[in-house]
Amino acid sequence: MNKLNFLTVLLVATTFFSSCIKEDFDKPPINIPHFDSTGLTMITIAELKLKYQGAIELVDTNYCLWGKVIANDESGNLYKTMEIQDATAGIELKLDRTSLFNAFHLGQRVYIKLQGLYVGDYNGLKQIGYIYNNAIGRLPDALIDEHLFLDSLPGKPIQPKVINITAIDEADLSKLVKVEGVSFELPGSPWAESTATTNRNLVDANGVVIPGFLVRTSNYANFTANPIPSGKGNIVGILSRFGSDWQFYLRDINDVQGFVIPTVLLNSSFATNSDGWTIKSQASDKNWNYSVDFGMYITGVNADAPCKDWLVSPEVDLGTAPNAVLTFKTIMKNTDSGTTNPLTVKISSSYTGDATTTTWTDVTASISTAGSWTTNTVSGFPTSGKYRIAFYYESSGTTSTTATAWQIKDVKLAN
Amino acid sequence: MIKKYISLLFLIFTISVYAFSQNRISGIIVNQENQKPVKDAVVKCGSLETKTDNKGFFEIKNLPVGSNTIEITSDDFETISEVIDLKENEDKNLGTFVLRTKGMANEDLEGISEVDLDFDDGNSGQYISGILSSSSDIFVSTSGFVLSYAYFKMRGYDSEYSDIYMNGILMNDAENERASYSDWGGLNDMTRNKEIAPGISSSDFAFGNIGGSTNIDTRASLIRKQNKLTYSYTNRSYHQRAMYTYSTGLMKNNLAVAINASRRWAEEGYIPGTFYDQWAYSLAVEKKFNKKHSVAFTGIASPSRKGMQAASTQEVYDLMGTNYYNPNWGYQNGEVRNAKVKSNNQPFAILTHYFTPSEKLNLNTSVGYTSGKDGYTSLNWYNSSDPRPDYYRYLPSYQTDPAIAEIVANKFTSDESVNQIDWDKLYNYNYLQSLEGKQASYIIENRIDEQKQLSINSLLRYYLNDKLTITGGLSLRKYKGTHYKVIDDMLDISGNLYWVDVDQFAERDFAGDTLKNQNDLNNPNAIKKEGDKFGYDYDILNNFGQLWAQADLNLNKFDFYVGVKGSITEFWRNGNMKNGRAPENSFGESAKNSFKDFGVKGGATYKISGRHYIVANGAYMTAPPNARNSYVSPRIKADVLPNLESEKIVSGDINYVARFPGFKARVTLYQTYIYNQMSVNSFYHDVYRTYINYIMQNVDKSHQGVEVGADCKVTSSISLNGVFAYGDHRYISRPNATLSFENGSKPDTTEIIYVKNFYVTGTPQTAGSIGLKYMHPRYWFLNVNYNYFGKSYLSFNPERRTETATANLGEGNPLIDEITEPILLKEGYTLDASLGKSIKYKKYYFNINFSVSNILNYQQLVTGGYEQMRFDFVNQNIAKFPPKYFYGRGRTFYLNFSVRF
């Protein structure tokens, strides 16, 4: 009996081990792609641009070109768009796929079988894509792998060409370029407003805006909220065009070089709460209020008396801040016929805990009266010390013609 | 103990009458399965007749001297008879008679027992009521078996309302209150002995719950002496099963030992890409010290790894031409790999002391300890395209141009690197990242739940007199569950890849904020490698204590019982990470939430005659909210829902029971109200682009309906049976929903969900089965069942039943109905059959069984699924995120072979 038991156990054990479930997988080999262009007619990007000058044209010959990826969508500043460049020129590809950079890294050599694709003009910019509403559009995702082919692993990235923005050569369009020694008009502002792609101006040595040249950044870029640097530096990116304007796209924040990077001293988004700001009403029954949808807001309409209302920041240590810049977004509604500056910015280094008994100093600010979110930039702050910043709201009456309404969010003090 | 077995053949002896005298016989009758007393068994000796009392005790006086035949009959047990010799004035103690459940008489040559089948296939994670199939009640056993195909839930209750005990220790999870059958899966012989208390009733082992309670008894001396090998071959979730059972029974040295071990496995189960690998081993030892003391130990482990199935949309099923398409797998180096692997290893041990100080008193005390780990793997990706092949943007329906849609459809149907996960591509993308020194784009993460639990349970049963029995118990439990995820596979060829522990959804919504995006501020921007914890890491702690008592009164015409329970529960969270979205309330121990709960129950049986009974039961109880539902974002922070309260349950049923020799039937009407329920859903929201926890509170439900079960013996070898359930299970309130955004982009918000009078989902509310059983005298048998499933509603998305979902649609706009109406699923029919043969050769018992489920190969029955938890608020287009379905399996077979010696 004991022998038999032993045998049965052995039998069971043998059965158990006779089949094992595969879970230890081989790693796939490194895939080094290779494209064979035999039978195709190779042309350069410059030749392609020369051949297809119309608004939209189908490529019906077996042309093939290659270029290296100079910009992709990794940072989110480009969307469903990629730029390639060969020795002759660069061109923009419109592709209906996200996360293109997964496969198309910078320096990747890409062959494009052009037959069946479209070349078109989008407000002065040549693009390769597909037809959409009789204009140039994106190549459908399902067709991308039939036209774009990788060749070898990503190689050395192409170096940017230094250009002079006062004398731009059209041949440099869609190439990787570098602009040296530039300053921004609104240092401290974010690269893009949170709701839309935003253009930022460069200024010359005299602080005068350089016309017709825009640094354009998507609000989906991963550096969108970073403050624009002050001082002078270099920028690398893709030269593009929309109508008569030259547009310049950064690939990521590493394309901004040699600037002083601002330190953020105060950052109150009012996205989920009032971020520690204090309210104080000096006159009227209306107060600054907080809501998720509005940020901090106030209106003197229907108040019991004309308003005097304070919104005071937490203490900010300016440390050594030779050039602090305050940015904040506002919406203003109504006009106040009795007051020219219904909202003012003040600072104090001797806050008493009560805004009405504190001695405040005005900071010169021209605050936008627009009815949609607009960024305001204010400078002229002391260079050191601990301060509170206040928004002071006044109304001359209690009706919609004598009291304004305000919303404030994204208050940022940066140096 | 004198054990007296006599087989089903019973002999009638002539009673020789010599003389009457002052003699007496007495004895005790117990149930073979659990050694518990059998009450109301009829003991007959000539013209004298008596019934056993609540202790199973009987006595008969004034019998004739000489040879007498006594016959013991009871409704649920095989009749036994025995010849005894009586002398004049003899007081003879006949000892203990052991009765065996009817239908088990041929156990030596057993047919397939339902629990042999693969109930815990665990593929869909749904509740499976298979454990009930061993009940003696025809309705309960049928619904637990054949109706489980469509996940029929008795009376529409969730599994948290069914309590599973093992040797008195509650096995339901302390956090979500559901029992995980997989923890003892594959140990059929070890867990065969069960006591079942269906619904509210008088129970020998617990206060009970509305969905019934089951106590699995692994006491070694009760496991039948055997040496058994089982092998099964099937095409269900596993393909092969091998099992070994060895049991000594109670040996002469008063020791009993039982061993049960098995493996179930498949390289690919019924659903493509699902592998199955479950081992199980168990040991039960009992030492009987004397008549009063016995100590038993049980140790069980059932480690498993299973490749999982995911639901997909009908569009994808139609494209692929099968309702069993599984998006979870793809080829890696030419081999099938599943991205979602569920692993389970929750070993446990129970030590029990059986104490019988007198025949009137039992006191059983168990101590249980478990410590184990469950995991669930999943793809995760950083700033990259969704790797799941059936992501809605990759489907033809996402295209607006029909020509492009056709190209997409052709590619999807023809290319396996498109319609399944393309592992080689993911490796390649990761490799390209490594060349630039960047973090991995794609990883496999493993979401781990570790559990540790110590339980103590004492159960006392006291037979006050022959009419009144008192039962009661004390339970104490200390639990700690730890939840975190680790990087399971970096999908790395280079060996250089890493992962930065930030929340990419917070990173995007709080661009530039270097604190909010942190998962652990104590360890910001941590570089993680394979095996490292990341994302979240927190403990849920739970202490629980309960006292309960029950009194049973057995009279001639009536039985009564009343029961009461009281419990204290406390739970809290301990965060092991300081989350950037909740720096103040994520790290360290949170405040405790405690709840006091109570319950009362009662019932009566009116015995109209030995053939007709009326039974009524009722209960009121409260139950604490479970920790899983109570935290708004447990992975992030310790915030609990506002107004946390216990739920309240009112339940009652009234039954008519008929018991004729060839006919048994039960008809039940029931009504249950559950107030103040909570439920939680966690999912990735495509519009807000973050994980969202969606918690519903103040959910009130009404469950009412009829159950009918009947079993009729047509001839000695043919019987017909039928069950039918009609339910009306509904929501009767408008719940409040709380939305919590894990990336903190919006504050937690609440809204009202308009689902009053919606049907409860996740089960057919109407179901039935007609069965035929044929038992050939030479141990052939055949069972055929035809089953019906209907009135099943698809699990709904609460967000579609809000004011905002239908905002701006004018009254009478047909879109309103389209958005808010619940989806009634198609009804379905299945046909099952099973054929078996038992052979005895010398001391070997062979048993062969072949069963086929869904013979008609019906593949259109939706047995699970859900409306997607996102809604196109902009265009109010329900087709944008269509529902996802699971379909019931087509034809499957199960071949079972066992030999016992």
Written account of the structure:
The complex is a heterodimer of chains A (415) and B (901). The mean pLDDT of chain A is 90. Chain A starts with a helix and ends with a strand. Chain A is elongated and about 85 Å long. Chain A has 415 residues and is mainly β. In chain A, 7% of the residues lie in helices and 40% in strands. Chain B has 901 residues and is mainly β. In chain B, the strands form seven sheets. Chain B has a 27-stranded antiparallel β-sheet that branches. The radius of gyration of chain B is 30 Å and the shape is globular. The relative contact order of chain B is 0.09. Chains A and B meet through helix 1 and helix 3 of A and strand 12, strand 13, strand 14, strand 15 and helix 3 of B.
Protein topology:
The complex is a heterodimer of chains A (415) and B (901).
Chain A: H1 2-17, E1 41-42, H2 45-51, E2 56-58, E3 63-71, E4 81-85, E5 90-96, E6 109-113, E7 118-122, E8 125-132, E9 135-137, E10 139-140, H3 141-147, E11 148-151, E12 161-162, E13 176-184, E14 198-203, E15 209-217, E16 233-242, E17 245-249, E18 256-257, E19 264-268, E20 278-283, E21 289-291, E22 295-299, E23 308-312, E24 316-317, E25 325-333, E26 343-348, E27 361-363, E28 374-378, E29 386-394, E30 405-414
Parallel strand pairs in A: 1-3, 5-8, 5-10, 12-13, 15-17
Antiparallel strand pairs in A: 2-7, 3-4, 3-6, 4-5, 6-11, 7-8, 8-9, 13-14, 13-16, 14-15, 16-17, 16-18, 19-30, 20-23, 21-22, 22-30, 23-29, 24-29, 25-28, 25-30, 26-27, 26-29
Chain B: E1 24-31, E2 42-45, E3 48-51, E4 57-61, E5 66-74, E6 77-86, E7 91-99, H1 138-145, E8 163-166, E9 169-170, E10 194-197, E11 213-216, E12 226-234, E13 240-247, E14 255-266, E15 276-288, E16 293-301, E17 304-307, E18 312-313, H2 314-320, E19 329-332, E20 335-338, E21 341-345, E22 348-358, E23 361-381, H3 402-414, H4 416-419, E24 421-422, H5 423-435, E25 442-463, E26 468-489, E27 499-500, H6 504-509, E28 527-528, E29 533-554, E30 558-575, E31 588-589, E32 593-607, E33 612-623, H7 627-630, E34 647-660, E35 663-685, E36 690-713, E37 718-731, E38 736-741, E39 749-752, E40 764-776, E41 780-792, H8 814-820, E42 828-841, E43 844-853, E44 862-866, E45 884-887, E46 892-900
